[in-house]
Amino acid sequence: MMLAVVLLVLAPLAVLTDVDVPVDNHWSGGFQGKACFNIQQDMTSWKVHLNFHQPVETLEVWTAEIDSSNADKSEYTLSSKQWNANEHVGDQLCIDFLGHVTGDINPQITATMEGVAGGGTFQERPTLAPITQESLPPGVTRPPTTPMTIPDGEGVVATMTVKNDYPDRGGFEIWFDFDVDRIVEGWVMKVHFSKPVDSLKPGQSRIMSHNADGTEWILANTDDTLLLKPGDHFQLRLVGTSPEHTAAPKATAIMINMGQDNWTVTALPNKAGSKYNYDDVLMKSIMFYEAQRSGKLPANNRIPWRGDSALGDKGANGEDLSGGWYDAGDFVKFNLPLAWATVVLEWGFLTFKDAYKAAGQTEWMYEAVKWPLDYLLKCHVADDELYVQVGNGAVDHGQWGRPEDMTMSRPAYKIDASKPGSEVAMETASAFAAGYLLFKEKDAKYANTLLAHAKTLWNFAVKHQGIYSQSVSAASGFYTSANITDELCWGSLWMYKATGEQKYLDTAKQYYDPTPDWGMSWDDNIIGNQLLMYNLTGDAKYVPDIEGTFKMWFPGGSLKYSPKGLAYRLQWGSLRYASNMAFAALMAAEMGVHTDMYRHWAMCQIHYALGDTGRSFVVGFGKNPPKQPHHRSSSCPNKPALCNMNILHLDVPNVHTLYGALVGGPDGSDKYEDSRNNYVNNEVANDYNAGFQSAVAGLRHLLLKHQHPEQTGGDTCPFTSS
């Protein structure tokens, strides 16, 4: 038999014309850009030089390797990844990147590509050599028998053709033909032979296991055969040997789709009869946090596609730092947003506990907040020593896969007296203080442990003041802190709420800020402080501060509104800000501040996320929810199918439904693209869901009290100020 192969002859580097790179978005601390090149000749590898008019502290790139940067970090050199090294005439190569800087800049950027050009001629391959065990490449012999669980159900059945038979050599070549009638994202193949096969060399697949006598083999896809679509005709070539060979064995094969997850979550009944089923949202949002869990999962884990992961997370002296939540669509544990999300969830639980009870979620919610609290306790290893991050963001963001499969290094970073971080220490103290209030009647011993750690961390934050992202450079490119004063006030107020000790209130007043709040988030607690200060002191002088914040946020203030009514603060996580401020408005209304108006506005912001625009922005809930959130683990097909950067770029729904996750949200014109590549609008995060979930709990609480805008007649959206 004669086969043809291509021999490539490498040409010198070919330099393409410089391109100007547009900046799609910019904000305080970073910017987003995309460099696109029209490929003018075939290439087998390439490099790109990104030049910035001023230094860029760190750069995140998903579709290229970062090789180097110059001394002042105004130029970065990128190189091709294995899966996109080959580019052809007529292709367009686009490289998305995220830059981290100090301040809000709109940089001028140019990019230059140089590639190794490919060309060549065809030559014929000599006749196939005899197939013997010795002639097969290393690793082709039968692998150890490995037990594998292959999903039940129907697959795509193949037709078999014997292409070549070599009775005198004990070898054979067969082809399987599959007519694909569904989307297949990663696959395993069950192959059954009519006689024993002692070696197998499959094309475009990997050998996973076989039975003892070699009559049953399990194969799995390679990157080249990851995605098959309806209408595709797929051929698989197998070359093998049999100890009983007189003629090629008969064989059957069935291809099973590993990109299929039939697990669904049954919606809770809408007992309140409201426009949106808040009970169902609460349940699914809690399940989102369960999907974010790191460490050893509990026996009652409800997320079937998640398993134990990052069990080896340790501090510099071997301290156990397993547990906690992965931050967003990645696998870093950033403790500042993690602790902030925990506090906001606890605050909503403390205030609207009746909502969780009505939804049947009380015990699940206790477990939800205890998970990060347990992790944060592990991180506080000494009085003035707190681990604040596990995992390196730059390394982590350059990979795509399952957390259960991680092999990358996961360094841990801490603050101490010499390298302080008052905001993350105080945010952690706040989580412990709020946790004490939640658990003091349920588990007094655990609650007292939380309070003891909270007191120590408060002392640490006040005594050794400093910005954590200046002490921990690995955090500065991702969660850069603007200042520490709002957290010093916030933590002190939570300590006063937990203990009643005057020193905490005195410290809170020292750092209190009465100015209108830009927007409640992991780095901005101003409105939270205004609310707590009024709530804890009862002093009416704080009410105008709250009003000032919402005057800025309501229609007619300085904030932009989308045509369909979204209070639009920033493109990156637009729904996060609107939902957080909706929660704050509901808290203000509970305190008697413009009760009806604030509740009406909050409802409209949350209903925007739930479906008022004609689509839901919550995965697994409502009409036309997001199908492709930027989230690694939910996008991966089931094992043993590969999961890597190729998955990121597939335009197909995530394999697993990430129930309850709030995506970043639309732009200021209500435009939204449901794409896994769209990390600005379609990523999910712990802090995105926190204020959102607590606001939903607040709305459910209002239904129980018969004070919901749907019950009082003020439920028209979009909201307009009166």
Describe this structure in words.
- By secondary structure, this protein is α+β, with helices and mostly antiparallel strands.
- The protein contains 20 helices and 27 strands.
- The strands form 7 sheets. Strands 1, 2, 5, 7, 8 and 10 form a 6-stranded antiparallel β-sheet that branches. A 5-stranded antiparallel β-sheet has the order 11-21-15-18-17, with no helix packed on it.
- A hairpin with a 5-residue loop joins β17 and β18.
- The radius of gyration is 29 Å and the shape is globular.
- The protein starts with a strand and ends in a 10-residue tail after the last helix.
- One of its GO terms (molecular function) is polysaccharide binding.
- InterPro entries: 6-hairpin_glycosidase_sf, 6hp_glycosidase-like_sf, CBD2, CBM2/CBM3_carb-bd_dom_sf, CBM2_carb-bd_dom_sf, Glyco_hydro_9, Glyco_hydro_9_Asp/Glu_AS, Glyco_hydro_9_His_AS.
- It catalyses: Endohydrolysis of (1->4)-beta-D-glucosidic linkages in cellulose, lichenin and cereal beta-D-glucans.
- This is Endoglucanase.
- Keywords: Carbohydrate metabolism, Cellulose degradation, Glycosidase, Hydrolase, Polysaccharide degradation, Signal.
